[in-house]
Amino acid sequence: MFGNLDFDVIRRSLPYLFLDGMSFTLMLTGLSALGGLIFGTLIALMRLSSYKLLGRIAGLYVDFMRSLPLVLVIFWFYFLVPYIGQWLTGASRPIRVGAFTSSLVTFIMFEAAYFSEIMRAGIQSISKGQPAAASALGLTYSQSMRYIVLPQAFRNMLPVLLTQTIVLFQDTSLVYVLSIPDFLGAASKVAQRDGRLVEMYLFAALVYFVISCLASYGVRRLQARIAIVR
Amino acid sequence: MIEISHVNKWYGPSFQVLKDCTTSVAKGEVVVVCGPSGSGKSTLIKCVNALEPFQEGQIILDGIKVNDPKTDLPKLRARVGMVFQHFELFPHLRIIENLCLAQEKVLGRSHDEAVAKGDKLLERVGMKAHANKYPAELSGGQQQRVAIARALAMDPIAMLFDEPTSALDPEMISEVLDVMVDLAHEGMTMMVVTHEMGFASKVANRVIFMDKGEIVEDAQKTDFFGSPRSERAQKFLSKILSH
Amino acid sequence: MNYNWNWHIFFEPNPTGAGTYLDLLVSGLWLTIKTALLAWVIALIFGTIVGILRSLPSKAASWVGFCYVEFFRNMPLLVQLFLWFFVLPELLPRAAGLWLKQLPNAPFWTAAIGVGLFMSARVAVQLAAGIASLPRGQKQAATALGLTTAQGYRYVLLPMAFRIIMPPLTSEFLNTVKNTSVAITIGLIELTGQARAMQEFSFQVFEAFTAATVMYLAINIIVVTGMRFLERSLAIPGYITGK
User: For this UniProt entry, which residues form the secretion signal (chain A) (predicted)?
Assistant: First the structure.
């Protein structure tokens, strides 16, 4: 079955796969998770704010993003970001945006919708007494959020946030549709150049599998530890 | 009818829930099992119809060995009724459907036959008017009466009650106990885990007192209430009765 | 923004010579729906089996369920589709591989099966959680009535568990719809694919994507409304879900 397969192609392309491909994937995952978390928290705060209109807008954004396939959103931003750049910089024509920037903007905006739902649940899980106690001590709304509510919400939701980040890590492979050389893109490039689809895709699957498995194992351990502390 | 001999049960390697328990319930006898929480009384009663496995000893039910791997357990369980602390009616089924399900699926009765039987039993526990409601629309006491009717619908040779009134609000306890007293008077073989000493003194033949997984006392009702021999049973009784 | 909007583009003939650009998009929409429905059936069947496995007391069964879920959850969907589409035919015996490669509509079948299996792991997780959320006594009550394990699942546990997990299942179905778009990488020209094709032929990027976006939103609204309707019609009187 494996008779005419050549697994040496993997060894030969390892530097390219990991130094170029995987570093792109991990960088995109990390920065998107960070950006998504920041924007997501802001959106969650908007949704929970007492200004009805603000909450409506945030809610619409979340529902909108969550209704669309990521692939379509990737295409949207790929074509939209140059125009947004033009608008922001006042240039006379759409600006050229690199593959990394374009994907980063996409994933931050997309993931923000998902992270915001997690943070919203986290904030709502904090008992009403906490912000009440904070304001009784004289803390302002933003102080009570910053020092009392958000840290607790973040800590309670950490396992869920990390699980979502593992999903994000896998989802970054979809930049393949823009022919961007992330890890899968790099593997696919080698696969097509050398005609070694079977070897390269099996290897790519294995790498994603091992990383995701280890990461979700870590999350389970973390969850167990948090459960004990409670 | 029920022969329990030298039953030992462990949870995990070190925690022993049942220690060398031996007792029996004769046909038509009503036996009340009491004891502090965690004493293993619920576990013991669940061993009788093999809801809980045990490692040592044996239980014989109407001549059939419960812990024999060759025993057809579903068939055996169908012949023993069980009533749970939290009623455990099936929430997605109407009351009458709750009574019919096992009659049809286990005993193979026709739907009409099952409904007729179900109606009769609902009548008997005073719940006929609620036949088409869902469990969540009934009070706890009503649900427990239905649960008793559900068990009776299988024409059981004996009934097991696992703290049937301890999840009920006080004002609903008597409506359930009344049904149980009637059942006892009709000669049903019953093994009842309960703290209701009033029920015990009214209908029980024997009272078993358990503590820390052991059967500490197994006595005729009058002996038990008259002069419990063990200190633990005396303490327990004084706590229960002073309420 | 110096972009030439042209909303009439939808009614201009598309380059395939058959119909307008709008026809193209609508055919993509149908393919999305067809693929998603088949994938969902697969996800429900396999997800139910694996979800039950995970909830069984047997160590071996739950281990098999665990491995199944981990296998499909820890690889990107895109990579899984590549495995089914590019790798599987090469690893099969020559004749079978050849047959697979020459299968008409290969992208459609691969997408439906690939997305279906991917989603089945998530359905399994939801179902196992739903079963675990039922009171332990429900299973015991079914057992005590003499129902076999299979009957207990069929008549007692699954009807309740599926009602409880209806809201998460709705979002998983919507995820299935969205995930079919990943199949454009194996040549399935569904809705996103048709929008992309329209963009390439007509250069009207934003009109094409707007139309696709509106169609996805419409699917969402229809599914959410439909499921809410279904949820309400399956709701049990008096029973509050999530308690």
Answer: none
